[in-house]
Structures are given as C-alpha cells and as structure tokens.
Design brief:
InterPro entries: Glyco_trans_1 (IPR001296)
Number of helices: 13
Protein name: Glycosyltransferase family 4 protein
Pfam families: Glycos_transf_1
Number of strands: 12
Helix content: 40-55%
Strand content: 15-25%
Largest sheet: 6 strands, parallel
Radius of gyration: 22 Å
GO molecular function: glycosyltransferase activity
Order of helices and strands: EHEHHEHEHHEHEEHEEHEHEEHHH
C-alpha cells in the first residue's frame, strides 16, 4: 500500500518524546502531526561550542548586572542554522516544522512548506518575561524573530495576541499567519464532576511561580471571601508552589508539585479538579496558558487577569472572567460573588468551559488546524 502522506521533519530544542518537557507541548505537537504526516523528529541538543558560547555570554553580562539571553542572539541562531541546514540537506522533505525562532532564522532551504509555531514573539516578551536586557540583545532578539517568521510561509500562533504582534510589529504578511490553539494535556475519561455544594466553594490554583502567578492575590481573595460572605465556606487548594512565607489558615491548603506521571499524584490532581468550583489564577504574565485549557476540560471556569494571550482561552461570561491588570483581591472577590449570586451562572460557565474544550481547546483540534493550514 502506497504511503501518500507528506514527509515532515519536526525540529525542536526540547525533547519531543518527553511528555513533561515544556508542559508537554513538543510531545503533543508531534503526536498531532503524525496523524496527517510522515514525521521525522529532531531534538537539536546543544553542541559543546553552543554551550560554551551560551555560558560565556551569560556570565559576562551577569557580571555587568544584565540578564541578557544568549539564545536570542544572531550568533547563537547562526550556529543553530548551520546545523539545521546540514540536516535538511540529507534528503527531501515536503514540510519542515520549527518550534523556536533561533532554529528557523538562518535556514536556507527549498522545502515547499516551512512552518513556524509559537505562543509569543520576542518583542512581546521584553519587560514581560525577559527583564534587564541590553539594547543590543533586544535588537538581536527582534532580528532573529523577524528572520524566523520571514523564512517560513506558514506561521502558526497560539493566540491572537501573538499573531497580531507578528503582523503589526514585525510586518509579517497576514496571509502567512494563522491561529492554532493549545490543547489540554489531561485525560478526562475517568473524570466525574462533583455536584456543587451551596455551602462550600472550592477554589483551585495551579502554578509553579508564586509571584508571577499571583499566589498572594489568591490567598487574600480567599480570606476576604470568608469574611465578606459568611453563608459559605471558601477553601483554596494550591498546587505547584509553596508560599515564600508561612500561612496558617484552615481554608488554604497546599499540596506542592503533583507529578502526573506518578499515579497517586495524578489521581490527587484529578480529585482536586473534580471538586473544584472555580479556578483562580491572577497571573501577571501568560503567553497562552495550557492550564486554562485543562480547567475547561474539567468544566472549571477561570478567574484571571486580562494579559498576554489569555483572551483566546478565557472568554468573559462564558468559561470565566478576565479582570483588568491592576485589579486587587477585592475585585476578584466581587467577581466571584457576582457569579455565585447569579442563579445558574456557575453551572452555565462550567458547561460552557467543557464545551469550549471539546470544540477547540484540545490537541486534536490543533492537529486538524495544522492539516488545514499546511495542506
């Protein structure tokens, strides 16, 4: 039987076979691509020369009080580009797929379909995720980003936020830019949503960075809810991080990091989601947030900040609410109380969250999207 699938080479700086790497993004991308293409995966690990350059560069700038990122320099991207060019010259491919701008920026190839996938552009990350960069590093980073997208005739972004920056700031032709949403890396086959108890509201927080994810806001929000609304008990369940200070409150519970590859810990995570009524994550910076896909998969509406690419994953009044940046704990309190006061609203949002997951916030939907835009 003849295999009519197009040949595709997938190139990534992370291990695409590791389900834990980068929140499972490389692994799930490859699994979806394999549905429609004959895929060869390349994990482009650092060479000794690249490592020496990266470490030397980083130490030099740290001594000067800067946190420059060597991975976003034209020198580092050229080192990667040479290796990628050699790989692509070995045999003919129909499609090359890049996850990483420094992998695509200096590639020279006649492969018909060249695909770049990302959840953000470098320009957006400056003073958002990346801080204290020099002007030279920023210039380099923007050049690498621009060249990568210009080199590809199919650019897929995980949010409108990222795609608009490609078009508006880097002037990448809109005809080459497409949306492709992240999916949830969860198994809901044995999931059984617990009925909502009117006297108890379980809030769930999942995040590994206390400050960036807004841990303190979530804590204060819970304390205020219990003071303001004595008709219910509000319990906050923290997964992923520990506070930098001691918190003694019977309504705030910490579970630390739960590894989904360990059955007991995976089951604990499922159990917390089964009982959760609202997902709260006052994150100050987020490119997209697979965690919002996961919450929707379990029918949990999200309350968060309106930042980054979250707008494509949390729709106001549908599967949650995005509060303006600068909102304080009392604003989160008022929004939660507003939802609970509107009879039937919580149930509607829970059902809408599950529907959104089934329709577009799952990996199969992204696989279908790849087939649509790549061909």
């Amino acid at each position: 039987m003849t295999n009519n699938k197009k040949t595709l080479i997938y190139i990534d700086g992370a291990n695409p076979e590791d389900k834990r790497s980068w929140s499972g993004i490389p692994y799930n991308l490859v699994q979806q691509l394999k549905r429609n293409y004959d895929v060869e995966t390349i994990w482009l690990q650092e060479t000794k020369m690249e490592r020496i350059f990266r470490l030397t560069y980083k130490v030099f700038w740290r001594l000067l009080g800067k946190h420059n990122d060597p991975c976003f320099t034209t020198t580092y991207a050229k080192l990667k580009g040479r290796r990628v060019n050699k790989l692509l010259a070995r045999k003919k491919y129909d499609v090359v797929f890049f996850r990483g701008s420094n992998l695509a920026a200096y590639v020279k190839t006649d492969i018909p379909q060249r695909v770049y996938f990302s959840d953000a552009c470098f320009h957006q990350m400056v003073d958002y995720y990346f801080f204290h960069l020099t002007d030279a590093n920023i210039k380099d980073g923007n050049e690498v980003q621009r060249r990568a997208m210009q080199n590809c005739n199919v650019n897929v972004f995980a949010s409108n936020w990222a795609m608009r920056d490609a078009v508006d700031f880097y002037h990448i032709p809109e005809s080459t830019c497409h949306l492709g949403y992240f999916g949830a890396s969860v198994d809901t086959t044995e999931f059984k949503k617990q009925p909502h108890d009117e006297s108890l509201v379980n809030l769930l927080f999942v995040g590994v960075e206390w400050e960036r994810k807004g841990g303190e806001i979530a804590v204060e929000c819970t304390k205020l809810l219990n003071k303001k609304d004595t008709s219910r008990r509000y319990v906050l369940h923290f997964v992923g991080c520990q506070p930098p200070y001691e918190i003694k409150d019977e309504n705030i519970k910490f579970y630390g990091f739960l590894n989904r590859n360990i059955p007991e810990q995976a089951q604990k995570m499922i159990s917390l989601r089964e009982q959760a009524d609202i997902f709260i994550l006052p994150t100050r910076a987020e490119c997209a947030g697979i965690v919002f896909c996961e919450s929707s998969a379990y029918g949990i509406p999200s309350i968060t900040f309106d930042t980054g690419g979250i707008g494509d994953y949390v729709l106001n009044g549908e599967n949650g609410y995005r509060l303006p940046m600068g909102s304080n704990p009392i604003d989160f309190v008022n929004k939660i109380l507003e939802v609970l006061a509107d009879k039937g609203k919580l149930q509607y949002m829970q059902e809408k969250a599950a529907q959104m997951y089934k329709e577009r916030m799952n990996w199969d939907a992204l696989g279908d999207r790849f087939r649509e835009v790549i061909g």
